Amino acid sequence: RWLERSGTTVTYVRNVTDIDDKILAKATEAGQPWWAWAMQHERAFAEAYGVLNCAPPTYEPRATGHIPEMVELMERLVAGGHAYAAGGDVYFDVRSYPEYGALSGQRLQDMQPAADSSADAKRDPRDFALWKGAKPNEPSWRTPWGPGRPGWHLECSAMAEKYCGTTFDSHGGGLDLVVPHHENEQAQSRAAGDGFARYWLHNAWVTVGGQKMGKSLGNALLISALLQQVRPVELRYYLSTPHYRSMIEYSPEALAESAAGYRRIEAFVSRATERAGAVDPGAATVPDAFAAAMDDDLGTPAAVAVLHDAVSRGNTMLRPGAAAEGLTQLLGSVRAMAQVMGFDPGDPAWST
Asked: In 80-228, which ranges are continuous DSSP H helix?
């Protein structure tokens, strides 16, 4: 939203991993076909994104729809001496790429072996699987090296190149994906000759008691459960106001306090609209301090502080007998800032 408001044309790709080891294991455990389990959870994510008014992607490709692109990428890597076939699998040769470990700042000799395939078939224990040979009762696709299915890392590089080109501006993802996923993505793409991502944005986690919130830890809270406590717009405010690289330590008290902060913005917008009339936030300007904060690595805490400062000045204008000159402009500015953050009280998304 901020890039677009700043005049940048944005192509936003949110790819879907609909086949990997975890999906196969979870589907078997649930007694479902792998594709049914994948679709069920893809829809659940899409619903959650929609409820929280997340901007929709330009493209949302699925891994299983891009096997030809993955095969072509592997062919380039094999031809360049960066990958090899062994026992029905295809591995990336980490020693063939001297910059392996650059993203996370680790040295190859300090890294643990990759745990995604049989170590017996590898040249080096740290080599990771690009392609996994067919196994009984698993889906498979034909390749020059035999039938099988893609490795997780290969999927993302192939889809990134197709929709973003060989070099693109930014790649996002959770902090826990730096190693090995993003490290492997960057290595295989650059070894194949692509520039890949110029910048990486790694978001921190929502934690509970200092531990990352996650289903595997049994401490995950579903969006639907949290919406029993606060409205969707208040939950978005809670999740989006901290810096994306900061941990969010969840507690009901913190959530309630954050919701109260959003309601102060909402109350001002309502009262100011009654007094000054409706405004178009898209045509309004944002303060220089807000723009500077957002330009500084998406500094949302400082940006939201500017927003609240504007609300405080606006509330002063709304006091009985106070001069309200400039209220319309201030209201437009407040809504414009909130619009960038995705929680503009006047957005029709929050009226449904």
From this structure: 152-164, 183-191, 223-226
